[in-house]
Design goal:
It is a multi-pass membrane protein. It contains twelve helices and no strands. It is mainly alpha-helical. It has one domain. The longest helix is centred in the C-terminal third of the chain and has 29 residues. It binds retinal.
């Protein structure tokens, strides 16, 4: 277990403790603030990362990438607008892969690529459904707001059971074929126990925010800093924060504008998730390429 993993466990339990002092509404507000700061920040250097694989980060290149990035975001928004249900399903699939890919990235030197991809997807789906299963009524309400479609809470439960079985089956096969992975997979199961406690004890948004920030965004920012600047020194981390600042401000402004043009009957959190669905595709693709490149280095 890395030093950061131990710290993440401590921060997670502290976050649960903090939430016991907050009323529901403040917990949601704090969750939204964390998502808008750390959560959005971890995607704010995507352009810089893309320009790293395309060339040596020339300004002209960055503008082309930015235009392409915005185009992908608009295309995803259009899909969401034309078919919110399909948009949401694809968003959950892409997010599941993206979360699983990062969480299981330590297996990339052990497992064949295709196997790891399917395994990562099954992990992410199981993780999302673990969260959803703990808060079915809230998930049904948000999904209804986004897609105008009422899902049956029972289906969330079946979804969890199915994805968990698939994940366990894959784990079993991995353990038999690659006994070397035993130690690190053991820790993943320990972390899953921590996530289950977090998701159960906190509200939907707070539970998601803890996982998203502590277990996904901060580790991702660390990997990205090493990829872009070559080390995780304090100097390079500050450089990462400085380089991402403008894109972060622009993204937060874009969410504000997006909210302004949405019907006023929508919850802010629904707007955030719709916006996320649009930025997830280019972000997940950039990180996919980054992790692939790291493997070949
Ligand atoms: C939590 C949650 C949802 C899904 C959120 C997802 C899928 C977030 C993905 C974020 C990503 C991938 C960020 C980028 O790194 C739903 C289905 C909207 C319903 C309500 C609660």
């Amino acid at each position: 277990m890395s030093k950061y993993d131990s710290l993440a466990i401590v921060i997670s339990f502290y976050s649960l403790w903090i939430s016991s002092y907050l009323s529901d509404i403040y917990e949601v507000i704090l969750g939204i603030i964390l998502i808008l700061t750390f959560g959005i920040y971890h995607g704010a250097n995507d352009i810089l990362i893309s320009s790293k694989f395309l060339s040596n980060g020339k300004a002209k290149n960055s503008i082309t990438i930015l235009v392409f990035y915005v185009f992908q975001v608009l295309l995803a928004l259009l899909l969401f607008y034309l078919s919110p249900l399909l948009g949401l399903l694809l968003f959950i699939l892409a997010s599941s892969y993206h979360f699983g890919e990062q969480q299981l990235s330590f297996l990339k030197t052990i497992l064949p690529e295709t196997y790891l991809r399917i395994y990562a997807l099954s992990y992410g789906l199981m993780l999302f459904f673990l969260l959803f299963m703990m808060h079915p009524a809230e998930v049904v309400a948000i999904v209804k707001q986004i897609t105008f479609f009422t899902i049956d809470a029972q289906h969330i439960y079946y979804g969890f059971v199915i994805f968990m079985c698939v994940f366990l089956l894959f784990t079993f096969l991995v353990l038999i074929a690659y006994p070397k992975s035993r130690g690190s997979l053991f820790y993943q199961f320990l972390f899953l126990g921590v996530y289950a406690i977090i998701f159960k004890v906190s509200s939907l948004i707070w539970g998601f925010a803890i996982y998203f920030i502590v277990w996904h965004s901060i580790p991702s920012m660390q990997l990205q800093t090493i990829f872009i600047y070559g080390s995780l020194s304090r100097f390079h981390f500050f450089k990462y924060v400085k380089d991402a600042f403008l894109y972060w401000i622009l993204s937060v402004l874009a969410i504000g504008l997006f909210y302004y043009f949405q019907s006023t009957s929508k919850f802010f959190i629904t707007v955030i998730f719709s916006f996320f669905s649009a930025i997830t595709y280019p972000h997940a693709f950039v990180i996919f390429k980054m992790l692939q490149q790291k493997k070949t280095e």
